[in-house]
Amino acid sequence: MGDELQLFTNRYQRFRPEQGAPVRTTVGAPRFPLPYDLAGYARLLAPTYGMLKMAEGPYRHIYLERLEAAGVDLISEQLAEIADYAGSDQLVLLCFCDLSVPPPDNWCHRRMFAAWWEEQTGREVRELAERREPPAPTLFD
Questions:
Q1: How far are the Cα atoms of 13, 21, 34, 128 from residue 16, in angstroms, in the given order?
Q2: How many CB atoms lie within 10 A of CB 107?
Q3: Residue 4 — very low, low, confident or very high, per pLDDT cuts 50/70/90?
Q4: Quick check: 42 and 54 in contact, CB under 8 A?
Q5: What pLDDT shows up at residue 106?
Q6: How far apart are CA 3 and CA 115, in angstroms?
Q7: Which pLDDT tens digit goes with each residue over 89-140?
Q8: Which residues on adjacent β-strands are paired with residue 94?
Q9: Which of 3, 111, 113, 125 is the most exposed place for a label (fewest CB within 10 A)?
Q10: Cα–Cα distance between 77 and 38 in angstroms, integer?
Q11: With contact defined as beta carbons under 8 Å apart, do 39 and 86 qualify?
Q12: Does the global pTM surpass 0.70?
């Protein structure tokens, strides 16, 4: 993978085509119609079905072990193939998680991957989904 490839994360429902090439990172494909075509499937970034019902701690442990086992080189190769197919140097790694929900339910494998990738490569992986901001205080608060 060349240094020109940029990675971002988002959720399926908030992706817009001008953000880059959309890439599935989920075990299953969306069951709702997407208004865009997926550029590829990054299998190495997807959790397993068995992980889907896990709490964050065990999930994080297993997921990071899986990333380590695959390694940066193999993941880079897979992402480069998707980028070549899509003809884009910007890949947006997608999943279903809504990170705007309050803790403790606002964790997601796409952000676990982003943190791991940044640690391994020094390259930032920004989240593109809009986060809901708390309402601004009013005079009556």
A1: 9, 9, 11, 10
A2: 16
A3: confident
A4: no
A5: 77
A6: 18
A7: 999 999 999 888 776 777 899 999 999 999 999 999 999 976 554 555 555 5
A8: 10, 24
A9: 3
A10: 18
A11: yes
A12: yes
CB atoms within 10 A of CB 86: 18
Query: Is the distance from CB of 91 to CB of 15 less than 8 angstroms?
Result: no
What six digits make up the tokens of 47?
């959790």
Copy the structure tokens of residue 43: 């299998």
Six-digit token pair at 33? 């119609």
Give pLDDT, residue 140.
57
Residue 92 pairs in a beta bridge with 8, 22
Cα 73 to Cα 76, 95, 138, 140: the distances in Å are 5, 22, 51, 56
Quick: pLDDT tens for 42-101: 999 999 999 999 999 999 999 999 999 999 999 999 999 999 999 999 999 999 998 887
The 3-class SS string of 89-109 reads CEEEEEECCCCCCCCCCCCCH
Q: Do the strands 6-11 and 90-95 form a parallel or antiparallel pair, or are they unpaired? A: parallel
Closest CA to 10 of 120, 102, 93: 93
